[in-house]
Amino acid sequence: MEENNLIYGLELQARALTPQYGEGNDVCFFIATNSLKPTNQLHLLQYDEEQGTIQSKIFEHALGEVWKLNSCPHDAHLLASVYNVQKGAQVLSQAALLTLPNDDSGNKKDAEPIKSEYIPWAKIEVLDTADWGERVKTVEFHPSQEQTLACVVGNKLAVMQRAEASTRVIAEVSSSTSGAKHTSPFTTGKWSHHHQGHQFLALHDTSIRAYDVRDTQHCAWSIEDSHGQFVRDLDCNPNKQCHLATGGDDGCLKVWDCRMVKAPVFERSDHSHWVWSVRFNTFHDQLILSSSSDCKVLLTCAGSVSSEAPGIDDSEEIGTGASQERHKVLSDGLLQTFDQHEDSVYCAEWSNVDPWIFASLSYDGRVIISKVPKQYKYQIIM
Questions:
Q1: Mean pLDDT (whole number) for 326-334
Q2: Of 47, 52, 286, 336, which has the most beta carbons under 10 Å away?
Q3: pLDDT score recorded for residue 110
Q4: What's the confidence (pLDDT) of residue 344?
Q5: How far apart, in whole angstroms, are the C-alpha atoms of residue 193 and residue 155?
Q6: Residue 308: closest CA among 316, 300, 296
Q7: Domain annotation covers residue 12
Q8: Neighbours of 122 (CB within 10 A)
Q9: pLDDT(354) > 90
Q10: Which of 125, 15, 3, 141 is nearest to 66 (CA)?
Q11: Transmembrane stretches, by residue range (predicted)?
C-alpha cells in the first residue's frame, strides 16, 4: 500500500524538518540533526519523482543541536534555525537566520579545506534574543511581510522588524500562582494566514491564544483546555479562515473553528501517544497529516469541515484550490497509517510543490518521502 516510499538516513538523530518554501519547481526539504556531538548538519534534500531518487546537499550547523527549522516563504535561500548551546553548566536555546549560497555548488572548497565536505553558508545571522529569555521555541516568518519575524521565547512573544532593526514584545504569559518563581512558557506558535496578517497563534500548556500583533497583550480569542493534556502543535487551514488543527499529548487530532471555541468541529484519537505534528494539505485541506511518538504518521480525512465540503459559504473559500475547482470530498476518518518509522516521528510536512507528496522524520534520523495513496488521490480529483 505504501507505494514508492523513499528512505534517506542521517548519521545522527534529528527532529527538525521543513519544506523549502519559495522553491517553485522541485520537491525539496530541509532536515537538521539534533546531536550533542560537535558537528551537527543541515541537509537539503531534493526528491526526483521520475527517477525515484533523493539528492542531498550538506551544510555544517556548527552552532549547536537543532530543535526547529522554518523556511522563508519569500526567499528559498533563507531559513531560521532554533538550536541549543551550552554555556558552562547551563543549556540555552538560541536562534539564527541561515542563508544558502546562490550557486549552491560548494565551489569554495579551496578556501575551507578542513571542512571541504560541507557547502559553506552565504551568511549566518545569530538573532539577539537574550533580553526576552533563555529558551527560544520557534522563529516564524510572516506569510506576506518579508521583513517581519515572530519569535516565541520562554513566556514572551516578540515581533521583529528586520528592516527597521526593531523588536517589541507583543504578549507575555505569567504564572497564575502568586509568588511562584517560574512562569509557564509558551510551547510554540504560528502566524495566521488570514486576518490581514495581524494575528499570531500561540500555544500555552493546554490553551490556544490568538494575539493581535498591533496591540500589546491583546488576545483576540482563545481556546482554553483545548486538549486533555499538553497541546504540542497547531496548523491553520490555508483555505478556510477560522479553522485550525491541533495535536496534543492526549493522542488527539482536533480541528477547531475559532468562532465556536467550546468544542472542536472534528476530532480523532487514532494515535496511541503524543502527537508532535499536525499539517493541513495546502491544496486539499480535507487531508491532514499527523505524526506521533507512537512511531506512526497518519493521513486523516476531515472532509466534512474542509473548504471542499459541499454547501460551504463561498466567502470562506480563501484558497485558490477551493475557489476555482470543486473536488470530491472523501468520508471522514483515518485513511492510511504509515508505519515505516522505528522511533518517535517529530515532524511530517507536505511538499511545497506537489500536494500529493510529504516527508516525515523520526528521531533516529530516518527521513521517509511518501505519497498519498493513489486510490485517495484519484477519488479526490476524478
A1: 87
A2: 286
A3: 45
A4: 97
A5: 23
A6: 316
A7: no
A8: 14
A9: yes
A10: 15
A11: none
Cα 191 to Cα 170: distance, rounded to the nearest angstrom: 13
Q: pLDDT confidence of 106, banded at 50, 70, 90?
A: very low
Of the candidates 172, 43, 168, 146, the one whose C-alpha atom is nearest the C-alpha of residue 100 is: 43
The CATH number of residue 364's host domain is: 2.130.10.10
Question: Is 181 part of a structural domain of the chain?
Answer: no
Max CA-CA distance within the chain? 63
pLDDT band at 320 (very low <50, low <70, confident <90, very high): very low
Segments forming the whole domain that contains residue 294 = 226-309+327-381
Residues 78 and 134 sit within 8 Å (Cβ to Cβ): no
Query: Where does the pLDDT of residue 317 fall: very low under 50, low under 70, confident under 90, or very high at 90 and above?
Result: very low
Q: Cα separation of 4 and 334, whole Å?
A: 21
Give the integer Cα–Cα distance in Å for 291 and 102: 33
Q: Let me know how long the chain is.
A: 382
- pLDDT band of residue 182 (cuts 50, 70, 90) is low
Tell me if 143 is assigned to some domain.
Answer: no
- Residue 199, domain member (yes or no): no
Q: What single DSSP character describes residue 196?
A: G
- Residues 19 and 29 sit within 8 Å (Cβ to Cβ): yes
CA distance 344 to 293: 4
Cα–Cα distance, 281 to 300 (Å, whole number): 10
